[in-house]
Amino acid sequence: MTRTATSAFMADVMLITLDNPPVNALSNALRRDLHEELQRAFEDAAVRAIVLICAGRTFVAGADITEFGQPWQRPSLPDLCTFLDDAPKPVIAAIHGTALGGGFELALACHYRIAALSAKVGLPEVHLGILPGAGGTQRVPRIVGVEAALEIITSGRRIGATEALSLGLIDAAVGDAILRDEAIAFAKRVIADGGAMPRIRDRTVTVEAAHARSDLFANFRKANPHRFKGFLAPAAIVEAVEAAVTLPFDDGLATETALFERLVASPESAAQRHAFFAEREAARVPDIGADAVPIDICAVGVIGAGTMGGGITMNFLNAGIPVTLVEMTQEALDRGIATIRRNYEATAAKGRMTTQHVEQRMALISPSLDLGALVDADLLIEAVYESMDVKRDIFARLDGIVKQGAILASNTSFLDLNRIAAATRRPACVVGLHFFSPANVMRLLEVVRGSATSKTVIATAMKLAKRIGKVAVLSGVCDGFIANRLLAPRGYQAEAMMLEGTPIAEIDRALVGYGFAMGHFQMMDLVGLDVIGRDAAKRTVMGDLVAAGRLGQKRGAGYYDYDEKRRPSPSAVTAALIAEVAAAGGVAGAATRGDEALLARLLYPVVNEGAKILDEGIALRASDIDIAAVLGYNWPVYRGGPLFWADQVGLGRVVAEMRALEAVHGEVFRPAPLLVRLADEGRGFGSLS
Ligand code: 3H9
C-alpha cells in the first residue's frame, strides 16, 4: 500500500505530511493513515509538537467526494477532529493552496494554523448541497461570531490568508516559500512557551454574545432569500450554527452530524455533486491527448464591440490578456469601450475591484477600425450580427490578414460553422466559441468543433476556457449547438400552451417552482421582445406585442405589465392578443393545468432533445448536456440538469408520459430512440458514462 501520510522528526517536532494527489482529499485510506501517524506521534515521548502539512499543490481540499454515498469507514472525519481535540501535544496545521471543507475543518481542530500568504481557506460544502460535517458549523462561529459564520458558511466563499488572519481563522501568514520552515519554527516557539494547546471548542465568548439576540437567525433567513430558494443546505447550516449557540459543543456537533447525514442523502446534494464532477469531466476530450499541444494565447482580437463582443473582451482583460477590439464605425467602437468601462466602474463602485484595476484592464484594450490591426493576434473572435454572408465575408478577409497558425473563432449561436470555415483557406484553424450573454458573467463556453477543426485548436480552446474562468463544453455542429437547441422545445411548448389558453403566469409559476430564476415569458420580457428573432412568416403573439410597442420590461409592458419596481402583473392587452392570435391560427385544445402537467409539457421535450443531441454525437456525454443547461440556462443546479433529473424521475415514467402526450399533441412528444432504449433496459443516462 502506498502510504498517504508520512512523518519526519525534526528535533522535538514531528512533521506529518499528507500526500494524496491531486488535492489531498481525505479519503478513507488517508484518514486511516493520518490517524496512525498521529497516534504514533502522541505516544512518542520524544515528540513535543506536531506539524501537519501537505505535499503537492494544496492542503487538504476536503473530504473525498467520490466516497459519498458509501458507508463511512472509521475513523470518520469527525472522529479525527475529536482525536485532535483530545491531543496530548500541540498540533499545528501548515496550509498552502486551498484548505477547503473537511480540510479546513481538520485545520480548525488543530491548536494552531499557519498559512502561506497565497493560501485560501473556506467551507464550500453548500455548493455540494451539504454542510460542513466535521465541526465547521460549531468552530467557525466560536472564532468569527455568528453573523460572520453564517455569511462564510452559506456563501461557501474562499477567504484569502490576509483576511483569514484578520478574522482569526488562522494564527499566522508567511511567505509561500518559507511555510514549512516557519511552521516548524512556530511549533518550537509553542514548545518553548510551555506547549499551550488552545482549542476552538473551548471558546465561548462569541456564542454567549449571540444568546441575547434571538432574532439573529430569523433575520439572516429573511435577508438572504436568494441563498435559500430551492436549496436545502443553507437552512440546515443556519440550524447547525444556531445549535452552536444554544447547545454545548458536543451536542452541537451531534446536531451538525444529523443534519449532514440528512443532506448527503438528499437528491439535491446528489444533483449538486453530479454538477461538480460534470463540470470537471467536460474538459476531457477523449481523442485529444498530450500530442495536441495547445497554442499560447498572448493576444486576442475581437471583431464587434456590441453587447456580446464587449462581454467577450472583458473575459480576456480580466485574465490579463490584451485585446484588439475592432468595429466598423468610430461611434460603435466608442460606445462599446464606454460600456466596458461602465461595467468595470460599476464593479468598482460595489467595492469588488479598485479603480487602479479598472484602469489596468482598460489599458489592455487597443481599439481599432481596421481589421489589419489584428495581424499579430493569436486568437480572433468574431462577434458580429448573425448573418452567414456577413460572417463568411469577415472570415475570408481575416484569412488574408492574420498570421499563420492564428485561431479563427466565431461566436455564432446557431449558424453552420463548417460553411463559415469554408470561406477560409485554413478550416483546420476555425472553431466556434459560443459565449452566453452576459458573456463576462455566464460560465458556459461552447467550443464548437467543425469537421476540419484541428486537435491543437480544440486543445487550445479547452485550456483557454479554464484560464478565463469558463467551463468549456465541446459541441458538434448543429442548429443551436447544445444549450440553445436543448432549451428551444421548452419555449415552443410554453407558447403552444399559451395559445391553448393556459395563462402565461401559470406557466411561468411552474418553471419558477421547479427552480428556474424566472419563467419563460418573464425571461422574454427581460431580454426584450424586439431583440428576440421572430418568425416573420406567421402571426405571433410576440410580433403583435412588438407592433403594439410592448417590448418588455424596458418599456414597462411586454407579455406582462410592469410597475415602477418592475414587478409583473397579468395584462388584459396581452390576454386579448393571445386570444386573437389563437383564433386566427385556428388553435384548438384545452388549457393545461397543474404544475406537474405543465412541467411534463415544458421539460420532457428538453430531455428528449438531450437524448437526440447525445445520440447524434453532438455532445460527448450526458453530463455535458446537463452542465450546459445548468451554466448556460440557469437550470437549477439542485436538479442536476435535464438528463440527471430525468434519471431521478425514472426514464420509464418519462417515456410513458411522453407517449400519453404524443397521443394528444402529436409527434413533438415522440420519445427519442435512445430514451426508449434506456427506458426499456431499465437504465438511465447516468449509466452511459
Ligand atoms: C467535505 O469536505 C465534507 C466535510 O465537511 C464533512 C465530511 C464528514 N474529493 O477542481 P480541479 C478532484 S465536502 C474528491 O480540476 P483545481 C476533481 O474532481 C468537500 N475529488 O482542480 C479533479 O479530478 P479529475 C469540500 C476531488 O486546481 C481533481 O481533483 N471541498 C475533490 O481547478 C482536480 O480538481 C470542496 O468542495 C474532493 N474533495 O481546483 C472542494 N476536490 O482530475 C472541492 C477535487 O479526475 N474542490 N477533486 O477531474 C475544489 O474546489 C477544487 O478541486 C480545488 C482545486 C480548488 C481544490
Compact overview of the structure:
By secondary structure, this protein is an alpha/beta fold. The protein has 29 helices and 19 strands. (S)-3-Hydroxyhexanoyl-CoA (3H9) binds near residues 62, 77, 98 and 105.
Write up this protein.
This protein is an alpha/beta fold. The chain folds into four domains: 5-264, 2-enoyl-CoA Hydratase, Chain A, domain 1 (Alpha-Beta Complex); 300-481, NAD(P)-binding Rossmann-like Domain (Rossmann fold); 503-584, N-(1-d-carboxylethyl)-l-norvaline Dehydrogenase, domain 2 (Orthogonal Bundle); 595-617 and 620-688, N-(1-d-carboxylethyl)-l-norvaline Dehydrogenase, domain 2 (Orthogonal Bundle). The protein contains 29 helices and 19 strands. An eight-stranded mixed β-sheet has the order 12-11-10-13-14-15-16-17, sandwiched between helices. It has a six-stranded mixed β-sheet with strand order 1-2-3-4-6-9, with helices on both faces. Strand 1 and strand 2 form a beta hairpin. Helix 13 (267-281) crosses helix 26. It is globular, with a radius of gyration of 28 Å. The two termini are 29 Å apart. The site of (S)-3-Hydroxyhexanoyl-CoA has 25 residues, from strand 5, helix 3 and helix 13.
